[in-house]
Amino acid sequence: MGTILINPFLVIDILMMILDIALFLLGAIGFFNIFKKCGVKRFYAFIPAIREYKLAETVDMEEDGRIFCIMYGSGYLTSILLAVLPDDNILNALFYIIRLAVLLASMIYAARIALTLCRAWNRSRAWVIAWVVLLSITAFIWGIRKEFQPAEKEEETAAKLSGTSVKSLSDGLTINLNERKAKEFLRTKVLLKDIHLSIPKKRMVLLLGGSGAGKTTFLNALTGYEKANAVSTLDGKDIYKQYDSMKYDIGFVPQADLLRGCDTVNMTLKDSAKLRLPSNMPRPEKKARIKEVLNIFGLGSVSHNLAQKLSGGQRKRLSIAMEFVSNPTLFILDEPDSGLDGVMARELFHQLRDIADSGKIVIVITHSPDRVADLFDDVIVLAKDADRTGRLAYYGPIKGAYEFFGKKSLEEILLSVNQKDEGGEGRADEFVERFGELQKKVG
Question: Residue 115: is it exposed, middle or buried by C-beta count within 10 angstroms (0-12/13-18/19+)?
Fold first, then answer.
């Protein structure tokens, strides 16, 4: 009989393939049971990288989980490239270095997630090494052992919906925002909900809220730049439905100066006028409007100066003038006092006060609200509820805000609604619900 020769490398490949399948099944069974304990959809247990992200999500480590997921995919892609690329010592060495760097980075993020996981499940930190080195086996052990259970979280109930809405003003701004959602990686997140308010003309309003409370998202929804499940009207006209014709009636000044340093002040305003004023507007009228805006913001004497030669306060005023050239009814400014000292900031806010008094609606975000609080009529306070969704905690006169929150300053108000893990008092839901009840009574 002939001798049967067995290729040892083929045997090793088969054994390695069987081992890979076995580890995958062990991990899948483990993650399946872990997700059952955590209330996560169990089909994610069969999707590598995604299941690790979902595990991170159970312990509020979404950002680390997202990075790990990307690292995992990058490592897999690098492996494929190494397999298909032609032999090239330099190129192969480069990809091996990249693969090693990705592996080390993914191990770091895996360790961070595992450490938080051990705390949440009341397990020894020694398990971190097991999660990083023997992930499938560790997941299997944690999944099948009944004594391994996530610690129960304290249930926080978000403030109930107000169930109110406000009537659209025929001469002012109205927003009835039911919900603003956004896709965030593998889930849909509610960014804002249940915000209903109206602002008459000749009002200067402060928009107050902590980081992540949804101030910018609210402004984008309000102006129709990012549509939400909402109805937003200006002088009775639906901004969403008539956005193309109404967008020039809304001025928005971002925090960063969008100026070309090599242009003069006059050239800058001329270019802005071309974009923001009607194309059929007679040239003498455009020229008169530019001159008027230069005078309003005290830039007439520097109209021929280059933008890069202006002082900080003058640059700010020029940025504002660029948006104001179209004579908008609604004027929104994001931290216009950023980088300005107290005197210059106050002078700028006095100009904004004059603009509001001329029949406009001015909405401002500032991180130093108390130094100019007396110049505002009203304040909108946005706060994150227990679900980390932006909600309306208060809207009304500044003096009324001090009474409503029981505080003596706007910064104290902000601290009262900020979450405890952000150094605040964590009373957002209390005030959101109380203000909702107040809105019901007012009608």
Answer: middle
pLDDT at residue 221, rounded to an integer: 94
Return the sign of the alpha-carbon dihedral for residues 101, 105, 110, 115.
positive
Which pLDDT band holds residue 151 (cuts at 50, 70, 90)?
confident
**Spatial CB neighbours of 59, under 8 Å, sequence gap ≥ 6:** 113, 116, 117, 119, 120
Q: How do beta strands 172-184 and 187-200 pair?
A: antiparallel
Question: In which residue ranges of the chain is CATH 3.40.50.300 found?
Answer: 172-442
DSSP string, 264-312: BHHHHHHHHHHHHS-TTS-HHHHHHHHHHHHHHTT-GGGTTSBGGGS-H
Q: For the CA atoms of the chain, what is the radius of gyration?
A: 29
Calpha distance 300→27 (Å, rounded): 71
* DSSP per-residue string spanning 55-79: HHHHTT-HHHHHHHHHHHHHHHHHH
Q: Give one DSSP letter per residue of 223-240, joined into a string.
A: HTSS--EEEEEETTEETT
Distances (CA, A) of 313 to 225, 297, 320, 347: 28, 10, 11, 9
Two tokens, residue 140: 């299997």
| Residue 127 zone, left/alpha/beta (φ > 0; ψ -120 to 50; rest) | alpha
As a whole number of angstroms, the distance between CA 251 and CA 231 comes to 19
List, for residues 322-359, the tens digit of each pLDDT value. Answer: 888 989 999 999 988 887 787 888 888 999 999 999 99
Residues 6+ apart with CB under 8 A from 258: 319, 322
Other beta carbons within 10 Å of 284: 8
Quick check: 2 pLDDT over 60?
A: no
Handedness of CA 128, 130, 136, 137 (dihedral sign): negative
Domain 172-442 has CATH 1.10.150.170: no
Phi, psi torsion values for 14, nearest 5 degrees: -65, -45
355-389 in b/e form (b: 16+ CB < 10 A) is bbeeebbbbbbbeebeebbebbbbbbbbbbbbebb
d(C-alpha 78, C-alpha 398), whole Å: 58
